[in-house]
């Protein structure tokens, strides 16, 4: 079967929107009702604000573009300054800035990609490009940190004089511009791609501040061993922050649930709903940190009405949106236990012929 082309995707989207305008007054509640006479299929993304998310992504892309250009300017200043000053600390900081340029470039590209509409072969859209960019950026930073440590080891064995004045003037430019970039990123910290880029920028501002302090001390004491010491501190700071982003991105790529999700609280709430009996085959995952999805099977009273079941789903969706920020959910109603015996579905149900439940 060939993949649908762009025109067929737009046509399907138009038909879907047209049908919902007439049948559901713009409500979009994803519900499958099994073994319930007269039950139909309705969709509801209550709490979704796709236009707001789209506007946020566009604003993020603009911020990243200007941050990219400003950081490239810092790179030029610190490469020239580090070469003239013969300072490993300043060149190390320039190496960090080089990764910032790559990081911000990738983040900018990812933000642009995230604005693309979903397709029938990528139904969640392109939001994961930001996660992949954040992972690539962080792994690059860890490699750079080891390179700095290697160079610092040689400088410890043979400390070299540096031009302190050039060091702190060049690093001062880095501090000012990086803080201006970080200020421009305010409000976008929920986006992992932006947060990864922000860590680059703040890390570089802190590193530049350390270079300035070291340059002033060396200017008055001539303790040139301070230069590689600052380099080591910069490298350790880079590696630690990068590793935290690596862990978070891998958790998302492994379809991990967000940290604030509590299964016990959800189960306790479901059992307080009149007509709801239990929940199983539960899946909660993050497409991105700000886009969390949930699917589950919900067992309801077989004697209950379709209207009552619809009300249960409405209350369920309102609860997970308020308590966990989950605005995209698919709930399948049942009156009998399916092949999944527990809260989480066993691996055997994924085997051929056993997963249709």
TrEMBL record:
Protein's cellular compartments: Membrane
Q: Which UniProt keywords apply?
A: Ion transport, Membrane, Transmembrane, Transmembrane helix, Transport
Q: Where is this region: Disordered?
A: 1-54
| Annotated GO MF terms | zinc ion transmembrane transporter activity
> Is the keyword Hydrolase assigned to this protein?
no
Q: Where is the composition biased (Basic and acidic residues)?
A: 12-32
Polar residues: bias regions: 1-11
Is the keyword Membrane assigned to this protein?
Answer: yes
Q: Which residues cross the membrane?
A: 66-88, 94-111, 131-153, 165-185, 197-217, 223-243
What membrane topology is given? Multi-pass membrane protein
The residue ranges of the Cation efflux protein transmembrane domain are 66-254
A cellular component term, taken from the record's GO annotations: plasma membrane
InterPro entries linked to this entry? Cation_efflux (IPR002524), Cation_efflux_CTD (IPR027470), Cation_efflux_CTD_sf (IPR036837), Cation_efflux_TM (IPR058533), Cation_efflux_TMD_sf (IPR027469), CDF/SLC30A (IPR050681)
Q: Which family does it belong to?
A: Belongs to the cation diffusion facilitator (CDF) transporter (TC 2.A.4) family. SLC30A subfamily.
UniProt name for this protein: Cobalt-zinc-cadmium resistance protein CzcD
Name its species. Desulfosporosinus metallidurans
Task: Name the lineage.
Answer: Bacteria, Bacillati, Bacillota, Clostridia, Eubacteriales
